[in-house]
Amino acid sequence: MLSKIIAILEKFTKKTDEQVENKLINILEGLEKSSIKLRERQAEIIQFLFHSRSKFKAVEAPTGIGKTLVYLIYALCTDYFYVIVSTFTKSLQEQVQKELQRFFSCPSIIIKGKRNYICLDKVDFLLSDKEKEFLKQNFIPQEILSKVCVTSNYCRKGYQEICPYKGQCEYLSLLENISKERFIIVNHFLLPVILKRFQNQEVLLILDECQQIFSNRKIKFIEEDFTLPEEPKQDSFNSIREYNLAYEKYLEKKQKYELAKTLNISSPGVYEIPSSNLIDFSIPNEVIFISGTLPERLPVEDADIFYVEDKRSWSRVKFVVKNTNYRALDYFSVLEETISYALQNYEKTLILATSYSQLNYIKKKFPEVMVANKEIKPFHAVEKLMSGEVKAIAGADVFWTGIDVPGY
């Protein structure tokens, strides 16, 4: 396969292209020494990425062919100062970071949504001693987390400089170090904010599972959202913390008001807003859209699109259709019967659950099935499945999104 890749790249004639070719050959030789060999369809994607001269490239390829490895190889061969990889879930962020480290010994930084980080200033100011005890647990109740998670409106630049906990803040530390790593791994919802930090920089943007970007966000508007809120005055508060908290709520209401005006929304209700409208595609120098199923329309013009044919033989796949639904009284007995059949007849079983009640039932009835939770990383579960340590894995759709299982 290495010789085939080299033959593909013989069309390069410029000096810069020769340097890229040498980088690619060194990377592929290193992978082959680790017994990692590119498959034919992976080589086809690499050929497309290198030969396309469009700023916008899109690849639709079936799950399981190793898209992540391919776009990381391409990114490592480029001269962009920063590579931003955006994924749909935290599990996918961790998978990308793992592959960068495992195959290329390449460091990276993961930036998760602000609500994954605790604001120590809010903890000190807003929580009682009893509530603070919950922060020592693995699972923090949502009502407490919503009180003390980091928000951009509270953690404004002006307040960051005087915050008594700025030296201990995990989120501020990540932001300070974000420009020190070449590879930055974010999620789709945080991408618009992070991307703005890299204006006038050399940036390659990779959107993994890009179809999720085009899913609409549902936002509820109430009557008060259509009135411009009054800005709080600092001298009306006893402390800078109290003022900052009030100012945070003011900014939230003001942003809602401005959003309603921008979208010409004037009556209460729940509205759907395309997430892709928030991304400024003029900032990156190059954008790669990756998906198992590309959306019908991309949010950019003149994109080069490459479709990888799904050559798997579906004739060997057996579909079992049960005449039931999750509201039926016999639903869980049918679920139990189906899983029992799979465990008895197949060496490896993947279970996609559509609710946590299903996962809890599976965990109770089938102790031999690995049931996904916050502590189980998808790629670790897949490794155990492939090694035969477990026969089956059950998880919800977020757990499985974008996870490649060899041979499936």
UniProtKB/TrEMBL annotation:
Helicase ATP-binding domain spans which residues?
Answer: 24-257
Superkingdom, natural source: Bacteria
Presence of the UniProt keyword Nucleotide-binding in the record = yes
- SMART domains assigned to the protein according to its UniProt record, in alphabetical order: DEXDc (SM00487)
Which GO terms of the molecular function aspect are on file? ATP binding; hydrolase activity; nucleic acid binding
- Organism of origin is Thermodesulfobacterium geofontis
Alphabetized, the UniProt keywords read: ATP-binding, Hydrolase, Nucleotide-binding
- List the SUPFAM superfamilies: P-loop containing nucleoside triphosphate hydrolases (SSF52540)
Q: What is this protein called?
A: Helicase ATP-binding domain-containing protein
